[in-house]
Amino acid sequence: MAPFVVGSQKPEARNNTTALEQRIGLATSVIMPLLEFGAIGYVTWVLCYLICVQYLINPAADLRLHGVEPRKATGIALIVVYAILLLMLLIPWLRLLHVIWTKPDILQPADPATEKENADSTAMEQYNAYVCDYEGAPLFCDKCRIFKPDRTHHCKELGHCVRKMDHYCPWAGGIIAETTHKYFMQFVFFAALYTTFLWVVVAVFFAERVSKVRTWIGALVVGVLFCIFTFTMSCMTGYNLAINYTSVEAIQRGGITNIAFLVTRMPNEQASPPTSYNNSNKELEADDDWPVLRMVRRSGGRMFVVMQTKPFQHPWSTSMMEGWKDTMGESPLDWFLPLRHSPCKQRSRSGEFRWGEVVYDMASKYQKDNPGAQLAILEGRR
Ligand SMILES: [Zn+2]
What we know:
With 382 residues, the chain is of the alpha+beta class. It has helices spanning 19-57, 61-65, 72-102, 122-125, 181-208, 214-242, 247-251, 278-281, 320-328, 332-336, 357-369; strands at residues 106-107, 129-132, 140-141, 146-147, 153-155, 160-162, 167-169, 174-176, 258-265, 292-297, 303-308, 374-375. It is 45% helix and 12% strand. It starts with 18 loop residues before the first helix and ends in a 7-residue tail after the last strand.
């Protein structure tokens, strides 16, 4: 079976979601955080008041009869650590919600009557390389009627295209994408720390206490469930950031990507670059033998050569540390503080996002095979 093209849409995915489905999606992204804030209030009451105050700092007379002695220092220390962990959870979460509500990654659709031929593609074609279809045009969203910047995906819950979309997360309060990904990572990481502390403390004193209390069990269950959930999410999100895949791209892993490279000097002989798909149908054995699909003239008369990656080659793959830093920031301080936006938001002439080595290797191979040709992406790299 031929590999699918990354960014293409399956026919069944083309049906528009109804306005009702979108309203349900939006409502859950408000209701879920409210329920979670309620759960935080409940476990705070159990841990700080019932366990720390009523059990450790000032145990009631009947508890003292069962040999429970006051442990003021332990109770106060646990409240202090809990308060710090709660703050470390709430600060990135409120930052995340703030950024979600300012909608920096959501693209506005064009007039529904806009034809692909008339849509404006110059924003993508200004770059030295961009992801394209077989004709060399940037990828087009059938629903928004716009050309999509690289790594943009149409979000059915929002009914809009979203830049570098990862996933729609009602638990966190909305869309996780280019700007929110960093704060989401911090949110799930600190949520995992917070819930681990919560269930461990409750479990320790629950095991010690002779007369079991139902309210403690509730906090224990909430702590364990959310710990499993947030710990899994932090591992998955951290790994995806390091390999520089969004969740959408991870699902499409194994596909091929067409990339248009800006040509600043044509090859000496025009015979070399093929102008049809023929090459893509051939089984190309060598790892560095990338199919050249066509030459195409785009907006402003700029000439591009369209090449295709091999299956499983991700155009933005770098080293794991570089991938991590692209979203989380340069310094460890950036990784933990929800202040500065991700470095991947900065644009350069090369492309919408920093290209991985495979894209430069493709360009070099093209220049090697086509003497005299010069691709803009390689200028200034030597
Ligand atoms: Zn769209």
